[in-house]
Description:
Elements: E1 2-12, E2 16-29, E3 32-43, H1 47-55, E4 68-80, E5 85-103, E6 111-132, E7 135-147, E8 157-167, E9 170-179, E10 182-184, E11 194-196, E12 199-209, E13 217-224, E14 232-234, E15 237-238, E16 243-250
Amino acid sequence: MTPSAGLRYNDSREFGGDWGGQAGLSVTGAFGEASFRFARAFNLPGVWTAAMYQGYGRGDQWKSLGPERVKHLEVGLARALGAHARVETAFFRIDVEDALRFVPPPPPPPAFANVGSYRAQGIELSLTIEPVHGFAIMAGGTYTKTRPDPIPFTPKFTVVSGAVLTHGRWRFSSDAQYVDKRFVGNLRYPGQPQEVDAYFLVNGRVALRLTARERGPELFVSGENLTDIDYAFRPGYPMPGRSMLSGVAWAF
Length: 252
């Protein structure tokens, strides 16, 4: 049984003081490894509120805004499946209170207020298998439910997978990821968040170690978005298509 804890305090000249911290407990036994984690943090309003309040003609009224408060809770379990596999799962919940939101007129001028709140909760699951020495594969997924729906940049489903094969001085690796459709935008500002499509990416890398030692120089060729799909993180900002990179990496 291994406990851990930490505490921090922040004092701002403009917004006063607030505290954050984290605590955890890990328990190992015949069942595997169970873990519990809790954290509390905060986001101060920041310089952008001062700039916008001055533009609204509100002077230094931004100093009356408070921090956004964030609480994170996670419970996990990991267990070996024989000598060549490991499964991990985690349940998580994130609560945000006093979130800053834009308050339009009337009455003018516009302002911001600590009136928002939202929650994201879900489950993560991953499996790693090493059937033979030098070859490993993994797969994992996350399901997230939000309230209210939607929360920007929070896809409902994400799935990842990867594989690594080492043979002599050669090392082959690949990974793939699926990210569900999601909304993007900033809830602190007026306007509705926009939706972007889901995407599926495949990447790969081949490396040749130039010496017999584990550390030293290696030649590599890597490729991203090998299937050359069209995708974007924000509307109107497309990401690159298929791209290749080669070079030398040196580990000391």
